[in-house]
Amino acid sequence: MAHIRLTKIFEFEAAHALHNYDGLCRNIHGHSYKLHVTIMGSINGDSTSPKYGMVMDFGDLKQLIKPNIIDEYDHSILLSSKENLEYIKSENELFKRTHILDFQPTAENMVIHFAKIIKSLLPAGIELHSLKLFETASSFAEWYAEDQ
Ligand SMILES: [Zn+2]
């Protein structure tokens, strides 16, 4: 049975700052992130199945990614644990939706982080093929299973 790739595109808005960066990105600023999730698997050949002809129902893929990535990270702040976190520790309302990450919140590190989460969610027989995370319309990071 042929292996086919499926891609679904998700969007979320988030702010981040790059710790110790030597430019403007050291300041908190926002991005309209676009995440392209590409999975791979065999087409369901069971004509009695409601998923006949599909690798995975696009709706099912959405139901995995939306609550675990999009709802989690949308309108949040992504900061390295190396930042001075005084403001957040003071339970300032502005920082309620902050993710303190044990890595620099670059697009590169975020795709690695998202790949780990998504791989743990996919059903048997479906593999994560690749992720593309657009930080801007012209800048993105890619994670490919074959490169790991
Ligand atoms: Zn940025």
Describe the 3D structure:
Strand 5 (127-136) and strand 6 form a beta hairpin. The mean pLDDT is 95. 24% of the residues lie in helices and 36% in strands. It has a single domain (3-147), classed as Tetrahydropterin Synthase, Chain A (2-Layer Sandwich). The protein has 148 residues and is α/β, with parallel strands linked by helices. Strands 4-3-1-2-5-6 form a six-stranded mixed sheet. Helix 1 crosses helix 3 (107-121). Zinc ion binds at residues 16, 25, 29, 31, 135. The site of zinc ion (ZN) has 5 residues, from strand 2.
What would a concise description of this structure say?
By secondary structure, the chain is α/β, with parallel strands linked by helices. It has helices at 58-73, 86-89, 107-121; strands at residues 3-16, 29-42, 76-80, 98-101, 127-136, 139-144.
Say which molecules are bound, naming each kind only once: zinc ion
The main sheet comes to: 6 strands, mixed
Strand order of the largest sheet: 4-3-1-2-5-6
Beta-strand residue percentage? 35-45%
Overall pLDDT: 95
Q: Given the helix and strand composition, which structural class is it? A: alpha/beta
Which residues form runs of ≥5 with pLDDT under 50? none
Shape: elongated
* Computed Rg: 18 Å
Question: What's the total number of strands?
Answer: 6
Q: State the CATH topology.
A: Tetrahydropterin Synthase, Chain A
- CATH architecture term: 2-Layer Sandwich
What count of domains describes the coordinates?
Answer: 1
User: What is the helix/strand order?
Assistant: EEHEHEHEE
CATH class: Alpha Beta
CATH homologous superfamily classification:
6-pyruvoyl tetrahydropterin synthase/QueD
Number of helices: 3
Give helix % range: 10-25%
N- to C-terminal distance = 25 Å
